[in-house]
Amino acid sequence: MTAADTTSDVKAIVATLEARGSERNRKGMARFGINTARAYGVSMAAMVDLVRRYRRRHELAQALWATERHEARILAALIDEPARVGRRQMDRWAAAFDSWDLCDQASMKLFARTPFVADRVAKWARDRREFVRRAAFATIAGYAIAAKQAANTAFTPFLRLIEEGATDERNFVKKAVNWALRQIGKRSPGLHRRALGVARKLAQSPHPAARWVGKDAVRELTNPAVVRRIALKTRAPAA
Question: Are 68 and 40 a contacting pair, CB within 8 Å?
Answer without folding.
Answer: no
